[in-house]
Amino acid sequence: MPRPETGPASPGGGAVPELSPAPVISPTSAPADARRGLLVVALGVLVFTPDALAMRLSELDAFTLAVARGVFGGVVLTLGCWLVYGRGLWRAMRSLGRWGLALVALEAATTVLFTLSVVWTSVANAMLAFAATPMIAALLARAVLGERIAPQTGLAIAATGLGLGLVAAGAWDEGALSLKGIAAGFLSAACIAAFFVILRRLKASSATPVIGPGWLLGALLAAPFAAFEPVAVHQVAWAFASGGIIMPLAITLISWGSRRLPAAETSMLTLLEVVTGPILVWIVLGEDPGAWTLAGGAVVLGALAAHAAWRWRAAPPTTEAAA
User: For the chain, what is the mean pLDDT?
Assistant: First the structure.
């Protein structure tokens, strides 16, 4: 039976599920396997690129969109897990114990907060706030697990904070709603970072069973605040494209490919999501991120890319995982 595992965070909100077992990568098979992984991760990033645009084109209010994405994504991903696990799905969920409830709650909060962030501020601001996830996770791991923070990681955390400060400075002129959007994006990053730290604390690799229920819980939590005004067919279609197609498909592709690449290389590839999404929205809808966001984004992305490059150089040449 395949053993789903978590991987890098994705701006769609949620841990990345692995829906196939990882092969043992030998020195002779690694190059071909890595090439396949590279192509699949790149394809996953391309699938994710129009997500923010689809959210914008739905023209739904923030909480209604959160409900729609949670329901569509939760149903699709849970059905996918059921196809993989079969009757063992409930057992896999129970194996996480009481902490599984915390993981479901964090997944729900992540999905709702990210949706609010995209609606309340520019897509570029929302993406950059969520991009702080790995740095927040490093700080939480230090506080909760006592893990040492390498000097290179410390510098990346400081640079990420500086970059987000520049983004917030620009949002100050855009009004309180934009600042709320950045705060929601940052809180979303903090929730998914806590999700990963709990998994590490539990020494659990299987998070997939709780992701779909987490999305459904997010929809339930957002429902009391949703307007639920009459909607057009195209609005439902764009919401389904975002929650029911783009999120589950992209997350699965990135997950499958990331099992065949070094973690740092995957991180660098997924950084493209932070760039391509806002660019597409800029081209199609003319949403100019502004000078402050561009400056802050350059600092954040530069710090994350430099940190990923350092990890890549420090990683062993081959990776082995039990099938």
Answer: 80
Q: Between the CA atoms of 252, 122, 214 and 276, what dihedral angle is there, to the nearest 10 degrees? A: 10
CB 289, CB 129: distance < 8 Å: no
- For residues 8 and 118, the model is more confident at 118
- Is 270 domain-assigned? yes
Q: Provide the phi-psi class of 44: left if phi over 0, else alpha when psi is between -120 and 50, else beta.
A: alpha
**C-alpha distance from residue 231 to each of 59, 67, 219, 237 (Å):** 9, 14, 17, 10
- Specify the pLDDT at position 241: 96
Residue 113: give the domain boundaries.
40-314
Let me know if residue 18 belongs to a domain: no
| 6: β partners | 17
Distance CA(170)–CA(290), nearest Å, equals 8
> Which residues contact residue 41 at a Cβ distance below 8 angstroms, ignoring those fewer than 6 apart?
253, 254, 257, 258, 261, 266, 269, 270
Q: Which of 93, 85, 74, 96 is nearest to 209 (CA)?
A: 93
Report residue 266's pLDDT band, with 50, 70 and 90 as the boundaries.
Answer: low
Cβ-proximal residues to 156 (8 Å cutoff; 6+ apart), any chain? 135, 303, 304, 306, 307
H-type helices in 148-246, by residue range?
Answer: 151-172, 176-202, 208-222, 233-240
Count structural domains, the chain. 1
* Cα 211 to Cα 24: distance, rounded to the nearest angstrom: 26
Terminal Cα-to-Cα distance of the chain (whole angstroms): 10
Number of Cβ atoms within 10 Å of the Cβ of 314: 11
Which two three-digit tokens encode residue 183?
């705060």
